[in-house]
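Slide 14.
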Amino acid sequence: MLIADYPFLSFFWDVLLLFAWITWFWLAITVFADVFRRRDISGWAKTGWVVLVIVLPFIGVFAYLIAQHGGMADRNVKQTQQSQEEFDSYVQSVARRGDPSEQIATAKQLLDTGTITSAEFDQLKAKALA
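Slide 15: predicted structure.
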């Protein structure tokens, strides 16, 4: 009895191999991304990891995952927090610009200092309230 005699088992085996192949590339890309993102190792160390992963793919990837798993997690958390902070500050800056009372207050300050005229102040006030 061969697996080819059973089409479903053949299909299942093909799907399993495809899943393993995609997972393998995902792991390799994750390792390469982490190696190149690191700032705590030299260029020679990065080159060494890349050569190891290319020459001995399974050993290289698994060795990196075993040796650097804690650092990878910390770097991912740090990058996620930094991205979240940048996003939050961007949203807050955009939200502040959209507040009509702040726009009118800024325009009033400009009017008081003589930077803009009364007509320009009225235009800015109408625009903020629109």
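Speaker note: The chain has a mean pLDDT of 88.
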